[in-house]
Amino acid sequence: MTPREASQAPLEFGGPLGVTAMLLLLPATMFHLLLAARSGPARLLGPPAYLPGLEELWSPWVLLLLFIWLGLQVALYLLPARKVAEGLELKDKSRLRYPINGNHIYDFFLGRELNPRLGSFDFKYFCELRPGLIGWVVINLALLMQEAELRGSPSLAMCLVNGFQLLYVGDALWYEESVLTTMDIIHDGFGFMLAFGDLAWVPFTYSLQAQFLLYHPQPLGLPMALLICFIKAIGYYIFRGANSQKNTFRKNPSDPSVAGLETIPTATGRQLLVSGWWGMVRHPNYLGDLIMALAWSLPCGVSHLLPYFYLLYFTALLVHREARDEQQCLRKYGRAWQEYCKRVPYRILPYVY
User: Whole-structure pTM over 0.85, yes or no?
Assistant: First the structure.
C-alpha cells in the first residue's frame, strides 16, 4: 500500500471523533464496572454508589508489583527455550510504509506502527497474550481465595467462573501460534486500543463475574451447574473446532482432516473454505466465543445485569469486528468473497444473523 493509498483508506471506529470518545469512555467504563461490582446495588446502568478518594487510587507498592509482574512476563517471553513461529506475510513483504500526513489522536488510538520491536522483543505480540491474559487468571484466583477466607470455602459459582475462564486462557496459550493470523496482529497497529485493551481492559473487566460473586454471592444448585457446564462445552466445541479447522487448512490444505472440504479459489491463490464449520456461518469461532461468554455469566444468576456486561460488550465487539473483516475480505478476494457470501449467507448465528 502506497502512502497515498493509505491516506485515502476509510477511517475506522468513527474516525478522529469516534476514537477521541473511546479514549475517554473506555477507562471510565472500566472504573465504573469495578466500582459497581463491589457496591451494594451493583448497577450496570446509573452512577456508582461511591467515588474513591485519591489515596485509594494510588499505591507505590501496587505500582512496584505491576512492574515486577511485567518484568516476570518479559523474562518468560525472552526465554530461549521456546518455539519460534512465522506469521503471515504482509502485503508489503514485511516492509512497512506509513502515510506522511495523519491525525494524531486517530494514530495514537490505532497505532501507526504495526509491529513495534526492540530487537527480537515484539511489544504487540507480547501484550496480546501474556501480562493481561495471564493477569486475568491471577485476579480470578485471588478473588476465589478471598471468598474462601470470607466464607470458609469458595462457592460453586465462583469455581465454575474460575474454571471456565482458566480453560479459555489456557486454550489461548496452548494454541498461541494461532494469534499470528488474527486481525490484531495482521491489520491493527499497536496504539492505545490494543495497549489499554491488553493490559487493563482484559484483566479488570473480564474478571467482572468473579468480582461480582465476591461481593454478591449467588446460590447455585448442582442441576443448574451441570446445565451451565453443558452450555460451556457446546461453546468450546464450536470455538475450538472452527479455529483448529481454519489453522490446519492454512498450514496444510492437504491434511487429511481438511483435504475433503469444499473450497472456492481466489485471485490471490488462496482458497476459501465453504464447508465444514466455515460452511455453517462465516464466523463460527465467534459463535462459540459468545456461547462461552454466556456460560461464564450464568453462574452469577439473573438478578443483576452487571455480570452480563462482558456478553453484551463482546457481542458488540464481534459484530463490529466481523464487519471490518468482511470489508477487508471483499477488498482482498473480490468476486470470490461475494460467491462465498452467497453460499454462506449467515455471519455468526445460523438463520438469524
Answer: no
Share of the chain above pLDDT 70, in %: 91
C-alpha cell at 332: 482482498
Q: If 0-12 CB within 10 Å is exposed, 13-18 middle and 19+ buried, where does residue 245 land?
A: buried
Going from the C-alpha of 299 to that of each of 78, 217, 236, the distances in angstroms are: 38, 10, 17
Cell of 57: 487510587
Amino acid at 128: E
pLDDT tens by residue, 260-289:
888 888 888 888 888 889 889 999 999 999
Amino acid at site 269: G
For residue 116, what pLDDT is reported? 82
Radius of gyration of the chain (CA): 22
Q: How far is Cα 144 from Cα 212, in angstroms, rounded to an integer?
A: 11
Determine the Cα–Cα distance for residues 69 and 205; give it in Å rounded to an integer.
19
